[in-house]
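User: Just a sanity check before I run the rest of the batch. Below are the structure tokens for the first item. I only need the designed sequence back.
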């Protein structure tokens, strides 16, 4: 078993001339074994591991997220938080010839790991940023993707993350969220997942109790919100059009 992880031991990198962000408390306390400890990256960043965690649904959910982006998407795309597996290379392959992708993550080893998975010439910029204070100008991005991040965050952080991502989207832009959802009452996995999430991912059950729209900023002009669930309701995809 891993020792509880001391974030001071992470070799920090600067991906651009900006002050390094502190790793949030909920990551070092609750998720150090998944994202912060260097051994976590080696252990979890394989298709077999990510697929196991999602009961074989990794590709299906990845493709569901990408399917609601325009094919050969143009303009600027923002991915909020790194994802294990081939999520970002797959996202890149959907972008058009002049499109660019920015990826933010607050944990430097996650960004280093992602950089290794991308071709050197890929039109991608990596930023060490906290999702709840992105530090980008408003109305910059045509589309943004948040894949399995919200369930990791305490409620107040989740609310600020959604507000930030929507702030940096252009009018008419699209936000795609994929995450956990309350399973259908007939789904037998609810009996396994409820105690498992309560033990390992304590904020995740919020997404069983409330719809994502509950954490959207009040008063924001939103064009359309569409929800689709997968795998007996255990997962959801939300598409928010401004
Ligand atoms: C997207 S989520 C989980 C993805 C999924 N479980 C997978 O297959 O990898 C994990 C990432 O979110 C990042 N993260 C968590 N909180 C963050 C925050 N406040 N700002 C930026 N990145 C954050 C973690 O560092 C980690 O790389």
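Assistant: Here's the designed sequence for the first item:
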């Amino acid at each position: 078993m891993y020792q509880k992880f001391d974030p001071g031991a992470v070799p920090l990198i600067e991906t651009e001339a900006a002050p390094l962000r502190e790793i949030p408390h909920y990551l070092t306390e609750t998720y150090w074994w998944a994202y912060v400890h260097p051994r976590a990256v080696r252990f979890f960043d394989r298709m077999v591991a990510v697929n196991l965690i999602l009961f074989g649904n990794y590709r299906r959910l990845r493709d569901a997220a990408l399917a609601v982006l325009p094919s050969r998407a143009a303009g600027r795309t923002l991915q909020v938080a790194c994802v294990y597996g081939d999520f970002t290379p797959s996202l890149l392959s959907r972008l058009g010839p002049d499109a660019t992708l920015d990826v933010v993550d607050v944990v430097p080893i996650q960004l280093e790991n992602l950089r290794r998975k991308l071709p050197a010439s890929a039109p991608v910029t990596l930023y060490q940023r906290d999702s709840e204070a992105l530090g980008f100008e408003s109305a910059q991005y045509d589309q943004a993707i948040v894949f399995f991040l919200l369930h990791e965050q305490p409620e107040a952080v989740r609310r600020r993350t959604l507000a930030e991502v929507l702030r940096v989207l252009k009018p008419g832009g699209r936000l795609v969220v994929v995450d956990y959802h309350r399973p259908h009452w007939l789904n037998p996995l609810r009996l396994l997942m409820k105690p498992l999430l309560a033990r390992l991912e304590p904020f995740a059950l919020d997404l069983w109790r409330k719809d994502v729209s509950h954490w959207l900023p009040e008063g924001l002009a939103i064009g359309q919100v569409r929800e689709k669930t997968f795998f007996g309701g255990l997962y959801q995809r939300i598409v928010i059009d401004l």
